Amino acid sequence: MNKGVLYVLSAPSGCGKGTVLKEIFARNNNIYYSVSATTRSPREGETDGVNYFFVSKEKFEELIASGGMLEHAQFCGNYYGTPKKKVMDELESGRDVILEIETAGAMKVKAAYPQAVLIFMLPPSLATLKKRLTGRGTDSEEVIAKRISEAEREINMSYKYDYVFVNDDLSDAVSSLEMIMKSAKYLVNQNDDLIKGVLQKC
Ligand code: ADP
Ligand code: 5GP
């Protein structure tokens, strides 16, 4: 049996990752969504253990030191990281996993796990991105300004990804992501066990 596929989805903050993934999970509940750890404070409506594991800086640094993180990065003054064990166990059991992480972390995942499929979601424009961040109503003006200033740098990183698509119309974006995820399952580097299995049959 092939291992699960490790998908990494990045996009500037406010582009719509959470919104698009909600639709993906509504259609396919057999993908494991990796819950990250972060030192940022919970937003209204966010739950510990569901949206993130909200931890102190000290606890986060302990997790790094004990080798418990697949990757970690700092973004807008906070730590974010992917707990390693659960992700590796799910992949080993054949289940697909999705990480919703920023670009520096995505590069670290690719280095540690070269079969990872890197997907970048673009906003239709920076002006639309700003409207979405403002419209979401969860961040202060200062935080929004920081996130917008990161967005251009992150969009330039999309050249290092395997796939790119735009989140303009929501249902088109969901279809694009679904197609990308399906097509990635047929990549040769995801099918080592399948090929070996065929060769072993007489
Ligand atoms: P992210 O997870 O990337 O930070 P969110 O999913 O929280 O972004 O989306 C940010 C805001 O943009 C939300 O208010 C969401 O409803 C809105 N949004 C997301 N996708 C679209 C879209 N395709 N068209 C219009 N608004 C969108
Ligand atoms: P937010 O504060 O908006 O939830 O997330 C800020 C950024 O951190 C987003 O780009 C999000 O994808 C990214 N992020 C969330 N979890 C992780 C993680 O575990 N590792 C890394 N490197 N980035 C993460």
From TrEMBL:
GO MF annotation: an example: GMP kinase activity
CDD domains (UniProt xref): GMPK
EC code(s) of this entry: 2.7.4.8
Reaction(s) catalysed (UniProt annotation): GMP + ATP = GDP + ADP
Record has Secreted as a keyword: no
UniProt subcellular location: Cytoplasm
Keyword NADP: no
Functional note: Essential for recycling GMP and indirectly, cGMP.
NCBIfam families: guanyl_kin (TIGR03263)
Family recorded in the similarity comment: Belongs to the guanylate kinase family.
Protein name: Guanylate kinase
Organism for this UniProt entry: Candidatus Faeciplasma pullistercoris
